[in-house]
Design goal:
The complex is a heterodimer of chains A (about 200) and B (about 500). With about 200 residues, chain A is mainly alpha-helical. Chain A has helices at about 10-15, 20-25, 35-40, 60-75, 85-100, 105-125, 125-135, 145-165, and strands at about 1-5, 30-35. Chain A has a two-stranded antiparallel ribbon. Chain B has 2 domains: about 1-130 and about 195-295 and about 385-400 and about 450-510, 3-Layer(bba) Sandwich (FAD/NAD(P)-binding domain); about 130-175 and about 295-375 and about 405-440, Cholesterol Oxidase, domain 2 (2-Layer Sandwich), CATH 3.30.410. Chain B has 11 helices and 18 strands. Chain B has helices at about 10-25, 40-50, 100-105, 115-130, 155-165, 200-210, 260-270, 350-355, 360-365, 410-430, 490-510, and strands at about 1-5, 25-30, 130-135, 150, 175, 215-220, 225-230, 235-240, 245-250, 255-260, 295-305, 320, 335-345, 370-375, 385-395, 400-405, 435-440, 475. In chain B, helix 1 runs parallel beside helix 6 and helix 4 crosses helix 11. Chain B starts with a strand and ends with a helix. The mean pLDDT of chain B is about 95. The chains are: A mainly alpha (about 200), B alpha/beta (about 500). The interface between A and B is large, with 51 and 47 residues.
C-alpha cells in the first residue's frame, strides 16, 4: 500500500524544470512507499536548538557535495546565474564553522542527508529529490518536530538563506546590495547601490 | 598609582576606562554582571544572519522584571559590552534647549550644565565612537568640530522619503551614526557587525584589554551587590558575587564609578543602605530611583504601489534624519526626531522557500515597495515614576526591579500628533490609506534615564555636575541615570561625552 505525498507539479513547470525531469514525475503528485513517508515524518525533536549540538566534526566531501546540490538546484531552477564554483568554497568554509563549533549542526545535516538519500532512491535521482523535500505538502501532527520539518528549518532554509546573499544570487534582479552580502564601503555609495535612476 | 572600580562594561564604563587609563597612573577593575561574548566572529555572525539563533536571548532581562509601561526585557543587554551589542548606533547630539527644560516648558528641571559645557566633550566622544556625520550641519552648533568620518550620500530609498518631506516643507539631514566609515561594508546585519564597523563597547573593550591588559581587569559574571562605605563620605569599594564560584567577595579601591545604566545604577545605591545612609547611598533627599523616563517610539508603515527602480534596502540602517520637530517650538509638548526608509516586502529566500516562480518573484519585486517612518519623542518625567528594589535575585544575580510609571496626558496626545505626521508623509510619498499601519511603543530600558539625576545641590538630585554622588568624596555615577531629562535625541553620545568629561575632571583633581 502506498500513501500520497503531494507537491504541485504545475509549480515545477513554472520553475522551468527540464522536460526530462518532469517526464519522470506522476501528474497528480508524488507517490511514495509508506516507509519513505514514515521516514520523512518520523518524530525527531521539538527542541529549538540543533540536536546533538555537542557532536562536532566535519562533513565528508560526499556529504557536502549532496548539500551543495541543493544550491545548484536553486540556482538553476530560479535562473540566478551565480558563480557557483566561487560560492562552493565559501559555503564549505561556513558549514565547517557550523559543524566544528558548538552548537554543532553536524547531526542535523546528517539527518537531512539521510532524507535526501531516501527520497532520491524513491524518486530515481537526486535532482528530483529537492522539490519534493522543499515543497511537498506534508500532513503530520507537529510537523516542525519531524525529520523533514527539522531538515527544512535547520538545513534547507538556512542554506538557501546563505546562498542568496553570499553567492550574489540577488544580483540577477538588478540589485547590488542585499542583507548578508558584503556590499562595499559605506564611504563609497557606488559600491552598494544601483546606478542612479 | 590609584585603583578604581568601574561597575558595568557598557559604553559609559568602557569610555571612562579608556580615558582614565590614557590619562594617568590608574589601575582599573571593571565588573560586569553578564557573561563574556566575542566581537566580529564569523560563526556568531552566520547564526545571526541566518536567524539560526536569537543571538542576544541569553543576555536579556529576567521575565520577572517586565513592566507594561516600561519594559526592560529585550531592551537592554546584560553582557560584556552591554546594550551597545544591539544598539542602532544613532548618535545625535542633544540641542541647547534640551539643557533648559524647566525654564522653557515648566516640566522637570534644568540641567546644571549647558550645551556649551558639553560641546568639546561631544566632539571627543564623536571621535571615540567613530561617527560618520555631516560636519557642516550646525544645528546644534559644532563650533568647527569635524566628525572623524564624513557622511555618505543619501541612499536611493532616502530620495523617496526626501521628496515627500520637501513637498511638506519638513527639514532633514544626514544621520550621525557610530559606524566607522572606512570599515563599514554595508552588509545590513548591524545588530552583529561582522567587521566591527559599528561601535560596540564589546569590541572597544577587546581592544582596550589588548592595549592595557596590565592595568585593566575585567570580571564578568560578577554582579556588584553593594557599594561599601566607610562612614558617610568615603567609599571603600564594592561587594560582589562571583557567579562562577558562587562566592561573595569584596574589593577595595580609591574611587568607585557606577556605570551600570539607569536601572541598575539607582538599584545599587538603594541596595547599599547602611547606618549612615538609611535609605540608600546618596538618597537622603529621596531622589535615587525617582524621575525615570525614556523614549516612546512611534511608527507608521505603508506600501508604495510601484517600485520602478527595483529598490531594496541598501544599508540596513538609518542614513537620514529629520529633527524638524526636535526644536524649541515643540519642546513644551514633546520634541521628536524621525527617520524613514524603504525596503522590499519580502526576501528572495522567503520567495524561494514559498516556491514562487522567478517571473512572479520579479513582478512582485517591481510592483510594490514597503515604506516606513519612525521616530522617538521626549517624554517628561512624571511624579509617579520610580524604580525600587525587588526582593528576589535574577539569573544574573541582581535584585529584581520594581517600576512604577505615570505618563502626562500632553505626551500621550503629542505621540498621536507625531504618528499623524508620519501618516501624512507616507500619503505624500504615494502610499494608499488602506495599507497604512501605525503604532507606538512605550519607553523601555534602552533609553531609560534620570534615576540619579545631576543637580547643583543634594536637595534636587543625586550627583553633582561632575557626577560625584552628593555628600561623598569618591563615589561617582556615570550613566543615563544622571540625565536630568531625556530630550528627544538618543542618549548614547551624550552619556559618552559625560564619561569623557568625568575622566577629564577625575584626572585633573587626582
Amino acid at each position: 500500500m502506498n500513501s500520497e505525498f503531494k507537491f504541485d507539479r504545475r509549480k515545477l513547470i513554472k520553475l522551468g524544470f527540464s522536460a526530462g525531469v518532469l517526464a519522470t514525475l506522476p501528474t497528480a503528485g508524488c507517490v511514495f512507499a509508506d516507509d519513505v513517508t514514515e521516514t520523512l515524518l518520523q518524530f525527531a525533536s521539538d527542541s529549538d536548538s540543533p540536536v546533538d549540538s555537542a557532536l562536532t566534526g566535519s562533513l565528508s566531501q560526499d556529504e557536502f557535495d549532496t548539500l551543495f546540490s541543493l544550491c545548484e538546484y536553486v540556482d538553476s531552477a530560479w535562473s540566478f546565474g551565480a558563480n557557483m564554483s566561487v560560492y562552493r568554497q565559501q559555503l564549505q568554509a561556513d558549514l565547517e564553522l557550523k559543524t566544528q563549533r558548538q552548537p554543532s549542526y553536524l547531526a542535523e545535516y546528517r539527518s537531512a542527508l539521510e532524507l535526501v538519500d531516501r527520497v532520491a532512491q524513491s524518486a530515481g535521482s537526486g535532482e528530483e529529490a529537492w522539490p519534493t523535500l522543499l515543497f511537498s505538502d506534508a500532513t503530520a501532527e507537529e510537523f516542525a518536530a519531524t525529520k523533514l520539518g527539522r531538515a527544512r528549518r535547520f538545513v534547507f532554509a538556512e542554506i538557501i538563506g546563505h546562498q542568496i546573499p553570499i553567492s550574489g544570487a540577488f544580483k540577477s534582479f538588478g540589485l547590488i546590495n542585499y542583507r548578508g552580502y558584503f556590499g562595499g564601503p559605506y564611504a563609497l555609495p557606488a559600491s552598494y547601490r544601483r546606478a542612479e535612476l | 598609582m590609584s585603583s578604581v572600580i568601574i561597575v558595568g562594561s557598557g559604553v559609559a564604563g568602557t569610555i571612562l576606562a579608556r580615558q582614565l587609563l590614557a590619562s594617568g597612573d590608574v589601575e582599573v577593575t571593571m565588573f560586569e554582571a553578564g557573561p563574556e561574548f566575542k566581537a566580529g566572529d564569523r560563526r556568531i555572525w552566520l547564526d545571526h544572519m541566518l536567524g539560526s539563533s536569537d543571538t542576544y536571548a541569553p543576555f536579556v532581562d529576567d521575565p520577572r522584571d517586565e513592566n507594561e509601561w516600561f519594559g526592560l526585557r529585550r531592551s537592554r543587554l546584560l553582557m560584556k559590552g552591554g546594550t551597545t551589542n544591539h544598539w542602532g548606533g544613532l548618535t545625535p547630539r542633544f540641542k541647547p534647549e534640551d539643557f533648559e527644560l524647566k525654564s522653557r516648558t515648566g516640566f522637570g528641571v534644568d540641567w546644571p550644565i549647558g550645551y556649551d559645557d558639553m560641546a568639546p566633550f561631544y566632539a571627543q566622544a564623536e571621535v571615540l565612537l567613530g561617527i560618520t556625520g555631516d560636519s557642516d550641519n550646525d544645528d546644534p552648533p559644532r563650533y568647527g568640530a569635524r566628525f572623524p568620518f564624513d557622511h555618505t550620500d543619501y541612499t536611493m530609498g532616502d530620495r523617496i522619503v526626501i521628496d515627500a518631506l520637501e513637498s511638506m516643507d519638513i527639514t532633514y539631514g544626514h544621520m550621525s551614526i557610530a559606524r566607522n566609515g572606512n570599515r563599514c561594508i554595508t552588509t545590513g546585519t548591524c545588530d552583529y557587525c561582522p567587521v566591527n564597523a559599528r561601535y560596540t563597547a564589546l569590541y572597544d573593550l577587546e581592544l582596550l584589554q589588548a592595549e592595557q591588559g596590565d592595568w585593566l581587569t575585567l570580571k564578568t559574571e560578577s554582579p556588584v551587590t553593594r557599594v561599601l562605605m566607610d562612614g558617610k563620605t568615603q567609599c571603600r569599594g564594592v561587594e560582589y558575587m562571583d557567579l562562577k564560584s558562587g562566592e561573595q567577595q569584596t574589593l577595595d579601591a580609591d574611587a568607585v564609578f557606577v556605570c551600570s545604566g539607569t536601572i541598575e545604577s539607582c538599584k545599587l545605591l538603594l541596595a547599599s543602605a547602611d547606618s549612615d545612609w538609611a535609605d540608600g547611598v546618596g538618597n537622603d533627599s529621596g531622589h535615587v530611583g525617582r524621575h525615570l523616563t525614556g523614549h516612546p517610539v512611534m511608527f507608521a508603515m505603508g506600501v508604495l504601489p510601484e517600485n520602478p527602480g527595483g529598490l531594496g534596502e541598501e544599508l540596513g540602517f538609518d542614513s537620514l534624519i529629520s529633527r524638524h520637530f526636535d526644536s524649541p517650538e515643540y519642546q513644551h509638548k514633546g520634541k521628536m526626531w524621525f527617520s524613514g526608509g524603504v525596503g522590499a516586502t519580502s526576501t528572495f529566500e522567503e520567495q524561494v522557500l514559498a516556491n514562487v516562480p522567478r517571473a512572479e518573484m520579479a513582478s512582485t519585486f517591481n510592483s510594490e515597495l514597503r515604506m516606513s517612518v519612525g521616530g522617538e519623542m521626549e517624554q517628561f518625567e512624571h511624579p509617579d515614576n520610580r524604580v525600587t528594589l525587588g526582593k528576589e535575585r535574577t539569573r544574573q544575580g541582581l535584585l529584581t526591579t520594581n517600576i512604577e510609571v505615570g505618563v502626562h496626558e500632553i505626551n500621550l496626545k503629542t505621540r498621536q500628533e507625531h504618528i499623524d505626521t508620519f501618516v501624512r508623509i507616507l500619503k505624500s510619498a504615494g502610499c494608499s490609506d488602506a495599507g497604512i499601519q501605525t503604532g507606538a511603543f512605550n519607553p523601555d530600558g534602552a533609553h531609560a534615564s534620570a534615576t540619579c539625576r545631576m543637580s547643583q545641590s543634594d536637595a534636587d538630585g543625586v550627583v553633582d555636575p561632575n557626577l560625584q554622588v552628593h555628600g561623598t568624596d569618591n563615589l561617582f555615577v556615570c550613566s543615563n541615570a544622571v540625565f536630568p531629562s531625556i530630550a528627544a535625541a538618543n542618549p548614547t553620545l551624550t552619556v559618552s561625552a559625560l564619561a569623557v568629561r568625568l575622566a577629564s575632571h577625575f584626572a585633573a583633581s587626582n
